[in-house]
Each structure stands twice: as C-alpha cells, then as structure tokens.
TrEMBL record:
Protein name as annotated: Phenylalanine--tRNA ligase beta subunit
Source species: Pediococcus ethanolidurans
Cell compartment(s), UniProt: Cytoplasm
Keywords (A to Z) from UniProt: Aminoacyl-tRNA synthetase, ATP-binding, Cytoplasm, Ligase, Magnesium, Metal-binding, Nucleotide-binding, Protein biosynthesis, RNA-binding, tRNA-binding
Underlying gene: pheT
UniProt remark on cofactor binding: Binds 2 magnesium ions per tetramer.
Length: 807
C-alpha cells in the first residue's frame, strides 16, 4: 500500500519527518519497503505555456515551439511529441535541468534549430508508465484547465511530486491497513492523535425515481455474500477526473481513467472498500444475480482476456449473462465508456476464501482481490457507496437516485475481549499500570471498561483481526513499543545437543559422497506430471496441487533423479561438461484410496563427463557404470549392514539403458537401482551420457546394522592363487564369486577379478574370466597344503555349479 504523507496530514496535524514516521510504522505495525519522494534528484523542471507551435523546416515529425516559462521573453524548444500544440500548459526542463536517471538537459541545435530546453512526458520526470493517463503515454503531458498552473513555477507541487510516499508491505492479518482510513487510525494510535474522517454524504439525488423500478438484485449464493449494495447515478457525462484526484491516484500508483472509474479507485484507497461500476444501459435484463455459472463458461474480463470459468467462481450476472468476476475483475461488455449515461455502482463483501481461490486460479491478483482476500470493514460499506455516488454525480454532472438496493445489509459487529492486568504484565514482562493500559487501548480507539484490574475491551468492526486476549496483548505491546519491553535471558536446565542416529548416518553419507567428488544439489519437490512418473521405485498415484503456480510445478515428485537431470541439463547448457551431483530428500507416494501421500527419504546421484580433471600427467576418463557402482558400493559398505548387498541386471526400467542397469538388493529386497540413463531420455533432457543411482534411504536407515568393530592387521603373510575360467556369457561375476566363497573357509580373504575376454580363440557365447584369490590366516602362517586344499574345493564347486573349463 502506497501511503501518501500529504494525504495523511488531512486526517490530523502531523509534524514528523516521513522517514522517521516510516521507521515507527515498521517497528510498530507492518514492514515498510521504502520511502520515496518523486522530486528527489530533479532540478529546474517548471510549467511552460506553448505560445506558438510550427513544423520544423527540415523534419517531418519535429516542431519548433515558442514557450512562455515565466521569463521576460519566451524560449524556443524543439519538440517531437505528436500531441504538442499551441495553447498548452506543459512540463518544461530548462537548460541545466536534471530529469529522470540524472540526465542533464542542455541547449542544443536540432537540425539547425536552437532548442533551449525540453518539453517532457511524465515518464521522463520519473512517473511509471503504468500510472500515466493513456492519452499521454506516447506524448508529452498537458495540464488540464482545473490545474491552475502558472508558467515558470516548479511542477513538483502541482503533480504531487513533493509528496513522500511510504510503501508498506501489508500482512494478511492487517487488511485494515489497505486503506488510508485504516492507516490514519494506526498512525493516530502511534502518536496519540485522533483522526478526523472526511466522509462525504449523498446530497445530489433525484427524488422522483424509485430505484426498484430501475434494477432488481437476487443473491443466489447467500453463504458467500456478507454484504451487497448497489446505487445508480443518472445523466452522467464521462470526462477526465478533476486534476487533484488524478494526482492523488498517480501518487498511489493508480492510472487515472475517467471520472467514474477514478472515483471507484479513490474510494478503494480511502476506505479499503473495492467498488465496481457498470454501464446501466448495457444491462439487458436489469436483474442482477450473484451466484455461479456452469463449468467451462467463457467470460471476457476488462483486460480483454477470455477466461474459462470454474463452477466455483462467484460471478455477478445480468440475468444469465456474466458481467463480472465477484471481487476480482469486471467484464468487458459492461465497462464504463465515453457513451455511458447511467452508472450502477456496486459495494459488497464476498467470502475471502472464494475470492482468493478465483484470483489464484485465473492469475488475476487485482487491487480489489487483495483487499477482499484480507477482509473488508463492514461498518463502511454503505459510507463508501454513498460517497462514490455523490462524487460520481458531482464530477459527472449527474444525479444519484435517492435510495440504494441492499439485499444483504452489512452487519458490523464489535468484539468483546476480557483480560486482566496480571496476565498482561506476566506475558509482556512489564510493570504497566491500569492507567497506562487504558491509555494505550484508548489511543487504539477501543472502548474499555475496567473493574478490579480486569479490562473489558470492545473492539470495533474495523479491526476484524482481533478476537482473543492474545490479540489485545499484541496491540498493547505494539503501541507500548517493542523496544521498551524488558530483555531477559531464558531460564531452565541446559541440555547437551546431539544428533540422532539417523542424522548421524545421513551426515556420514553426505561426507562420503562429497569426498567421492559429488556436489550436493537441492531440487524442487514439485515437478511436472511426466517427470514425477519417471524412475519410480514403486507404484504410486500422482499427488496434484489444486492451485499450482505453474504447470512445471504441479505434481509432487516421486523420484529424485528427474530433478538432478534438470540440474545436469542446466549446467551442461552453460558449458560445464563435468557434472557430479547428489541429492538427499523426500519423495511422495500415494495410494488411490488415500488423499495424503506418504513421505519417504531417498538418496540419488547423477554424473556426466569425467570425475578426473585433465592434467599434464593424466587424461580425462569418462565416467562409466563401474565407477559409479564403486561409489555406491563404498557408501553401502560404510553403513555396515547386516544383510548382504547384491546387484542384479535389470532390462525392464523404461528410463534406464537396458544393458547398463542393475537393481540393488539388500538381502531379498530391492532398495534402489544404478545405471545409465536411456539415450532417448538423455536426448529429452538435452544431456550427454549420464549415469545415475537412486536408493531408498529410509529402508537403509531402518535396516539392521552390525555393531562397528575393528580388527588388527594380521602379521602373517598372504598367499595368492590365480585361476582363469572359460564360462558361459550369461553367468555373472556375482554368481562366480558366490560359488567360490561357498566352499571356502575363513582363510579366503579376497577375490579380485582382473581380466575378462571374449572374441578370437574363444568359443561363441563363452567368455574368459580370470581371478586372483587371496588367502590369509590371522593367527598362523598358512601352509601350501592348506591353501591348495581350500582352492581345490572352490574350483570343484565351480565345476559342479557351472559348465566351467579351467584354462
């Protein structure tokens, strides 16, 4: 909310530096984003009057202007604006002036003609384009007749540029601060001043017409309408608003449109009550309905966009025809135009939840919807309508119809809250007296009755955020001053902080992966429906958001890899060829009969390129399946799991390469998978060859683990035996190792595969594999006979299990 300092001074005498006031507001009420004065940094910008305008002799778009700037002689300025003409009061930047962005204006010649300054558009002196009246967006600004400007005088006061604007960030619970009246009450409480509210009464009325003969209203959704009123102004002439009103709106960040629309915006800023104006002659049935329309009904809003309605969007209708989205935006068909003669003005309060859902779904966060979402003061619904009718009649030279239609009357209700002084001082840590508390509540314009240090506080309807004693305590603390509250250290027994077992394991996993060369990544928990279904480790239903901010973040993720691939793609697109990432986070699984998904901790990694940096003594080696498997194997080994870990080839995962993918088993249960991303998926993500893994971290945390123990290194020597086998290609290394271990006793210390060969001199569908078997006795020196006996038992087991030939 842009709070005008000059407007605030109309409520009470205010002699406080604007920046000091802003700091006080921030310490007491809501956050202040900034304090701005549009005139700061500007210099020598004055009012000029165009005495004569002639075409430039050497240009088809420039004009040579003789401008009265309050000096003895007019000055000549060359101007290229399409709307410059004789007899206009304009903005002139003199020689030596400073305009927006500290641009200095100097005398110069433009195609041979002397130019002694510049005739300016509002944008050139610091106004945002969105607040400039549309007729002046592409040209210079021309002061209207009622501005009463004089040549030679600075423009700052006329255009409100000398006003200090305090831009506040209103919290959801303080919707009352979305109005100047609300801010006046708040600042009055801070500085112990009573605001004087200037609420105009309806005076210009047509006594002969009964409004019920002109319009009828039916509320078809009474549960969503807390107040609804309409008034009518006849014989209106649509024209620009008075100059003072245009300046006030531009200062508040609102573009002036015409006298009717500007009045509704002015009332919204003043009261916090959004209004909407309809062209009466564009209503066909003259019967207003407030209700719902069928799903997928088309509706064109004031911004010219066609929108597809939901069945839950609250609408204002002319009979069966939609004319406005209640509380959000009006319709294009009934907008106020230059031909409008009779105006219908609506003042209402709608269900804030309905308005918020409609605004979010259609991405229409208007000034009106922001206020309806946060609440409206029911005590001023009628006052706001009456003042709007009076100003519309006054500015449009029309007459308001005497009565208003009110099918749902506003119901302002005060709230009574009781609390005692002991409780106040106990919670706030203060020693306030009854008189001090009473004075604070009086400054807030609350009614207070005190009996035996018990306060019975009556809160007016304009503060609808207050309901319970804790709310009153907050108000007392705010006005008393947070800086004045005593500072005390917490008391109680101290405890030694430590990590839980799960936290220790997760931290160890992170250190291991980072030590292995992977960097931690954090991806969004929300993704697209397509990516959510990729790389899934179990069947699950989608969990969709009802109101996603974008379709890219509409579904809860069911894997981590797709997010990591997005991160890989981001880096690859920026010429980072070597990317190694891991992520630890939650995925969300849901069964069809359950609304709320279960959250499961997962761990995933993705590597592309090389993990070894090219140097003078070494070359880059592209990452492969076995390098990533080594990292995963080290991780699982470090967890010291009781059950054995095994890797089984899997060709059925659709997003993974069918020949380079394996499921990871813990005992008999799949806890993850590892391998290369399928080339088609790599192409979809626009990434090179990439290897990934994903583990069910929750299953690993819950799995039984061996107690960590350490053994001394044996002082006795090891004995090795090499063996080369000719075996079927289908037999895996895991199966061979398992067979070798089956018939070996505790002397077999290690099995190392050092050669795999197939091709020339090897039969078809066969392969040659070679192993080194290491034997060691931890307590004695092994003999050759002991090693030979154990080695022969292992070879016999291989021969009996597989059709193997010893080479």
């Amino acid at each position: 909310m842009k709070v005008s300092y000059n407007w605030l001074k109309e409520y009470f005498d205010l002699d406080v530096d604007p920046k000091v006031l802003a700091e006080k507001i921030e310490r007491t009420a809501v956050e202040v984003d900034e304090v701005t004065c549009a005139a700061d940094g500007l210099k020598k910008i004055i009012v000029g009057y165009t005495l004569d305008v002639q075409p430039h002799p050497d240009s088809d778009h420039l004009n040579v202007c003789q401008v009265d700037v309050g000096e003895d002689e007019p000055i000549q300025i060359v101007c290229g604006a399409p709307n410059v003409a004789k007899g206009q009061y304009v903005i002139v930047a003199m020689h030596g002036a400073r305009i927006k962005d500290n641009v200095k204006i100097k005398r110069s010649k433009m195609r041979g003609e002397q130019s002694n300054g510049m005739i300016c558009a509002l944008q050139e002196i610091g106004f945002e384009e969105k607040v400039v009246p549309k007729e002046y967006v592409n040209g210079i600004y021309v002061f209207p007749e009622d501005s009463h400007v004089k040549p030679g005088e600075p423009v700052y006061n006329y255009l409100g540029m000398d006003d200090n604007v305090i831009d506040t960030s209103v919290t959801p619970n303080r919707g009352d601060l979305f109005s100047m009246d609300g801010n006046a009450y708040e600042i009055g409480a801070i500085y112990d001043k009573v605001p004087v509210l200037h609420h105009r009464q309806l005076e210009t009325v047509d006594q002969e017409i009964d409004i019920k003969d002109l319009l009828n209203i039916k509320i078809d959704a009474p549960e969503d309408v807390q107040a609804y009123q309409m008034g009518i102004v006849k014989h209106v002439k649509i024209e620009p608003s008075p100059f003072w009103l245009q300046v006030r709106l531009m200062t508040a960040g609102v573009r002036p449109i015409n006298n009717v629309v500007d009045v509704t915006n002015y009332i919204m800023l003043k009261y916090g009550q959004p209004l909407h104006a309809f062209d009466y002659d564009k209503l066909t049935t003259k019967e207003i309905h407030v209700g719902y329309s069928p799903k997928q009904t088309k509706f064109v809003t004031l911004d010219g966009e066609e929108r597809e309605l939901r069945a839950t969007d609250l609408m204002i209708k002319d009979g069966d025809k939609n004319i406005a989205m209640a509380g959000v935006m009006g319709g294009l068909e009934t907008e106020i135009s230059d031909q409008t003669k009779t105006v219908v003005i609506e003042s209402a309060i709608f269900d804030p939840i309905k308005i918020r859902k409609t605004a979010r779904y259609h991405v229409l966060h208007s000034e009106a919807s922001m206020r309806f979402e946060r609440g409206i003061n029911p005590a001023t619904v009628t006052d706001a309508l009456n003042e709007a009718l009076q100003l519309t009649a006054q500015f449009g030279q029309g007459e308001a119809v005497k009565d208003q239609l009110s099918p749902v009357d506003p119901n302002p209700q005060s709230v009574e809250v009781t609390l005692d002084l002991t409780r106040i001082n106990h919670v706030l840590g203060t020693s306030l007296t009854v008189e001090e508390v009473t004075d604070i509540l009086r400054r807030l314009q609350f009614t207070v009755q005190v009996s035996d240090e018990v306060f019975k506080v009556t809160v007016p309807a304009r503060r609808w955020d207050i309901h319970i004693p804790a709310d009153i305590l907050e108000e007392i603390a705010r006005i008393y001053g947070y800086d004045n509250l005593p500072s005390t250290l917490p008391t109680g027994s101290t405890t030694i902080g430590r990590l839980t077992t799960s936290q220790q394991v997760i931290r160890g996993i992170r250190e291991l992966l980072q030590g292995s060369g992977l960097n931690q990544a954090m991806s969004y928990g929300l993704t697209t429906a397509e990516k959510a279904k990729m790389f899934m480790m179990q069947e699950s239903e989608e969990t969709k958001l009802d109101f996603p901010m974008s379709q890219d973040h509409a579904v809860l993720r069911m894997n981590l890899i797709s997010g990591l691939l997005d991160d890989v793609a981001y880096n690859v697109a920026r010429k980072e060829a070597n990317v190694a990432l891991y992520e630890q986070g939650r995925v969300f699984y849901r069964t069809a009969d359950v609304d709320r998904p279960s959250e499961v901790e997962h761990l995933a990694g993705a590597i592309t390129g090389s993990m070894v940096t090219k140097s003078w003594y070494d070359k880059e080696v592209p990452v492969d399946f076995y390098q990533l498997k080594g990292i995963v194997a080290l991780l699982l080994h470090d967890l010291n799991l009781e059950e054995s870990v095994s890797y089984v080839a899997n060709q059925t995962r659709p997003e993974m390469h069918p020949g380079r993918t394996a499921d990871i088993y813990l005992g008999d249960h799949v806890i993850g998978f590892i391998g290369q991303v399928h080339p088609q998926i790599e192409k979809q993500f626009k990434i090179p060859e990439t290897y990934v893994f994903e583990l069910d971290l929750q299953a690993l945390l819950d799995a039984p683990k061996r107690i960590q123990h350490y053994e001394p290194i044996s002082k006795y020597p090891a004995i090795t035996r090499d063996v080369a086998l000719l075996i079927d290609k289908e037999v895996s290394n895991t199966e061979i190792v398992a067979a070798l271990k089956k018939k070996s006793n505790h002397h077999l210390e290690d099995i190392q595969l050092f050669d795999v060969y197939s091709g020339k001199h090897i039969p078809e569908n066969k392969k040659s594999v070679a192993y080194t078997l290491t034997y060691r006795d931890k307590h004695n020196t092994l003999t050759e006979d002991e090693v030979n006996q154990e080695f022969e038992q292992a070879i016999s087991e291989l021969k009996s299990t597989f059709e193997v030939e010893i080479r």
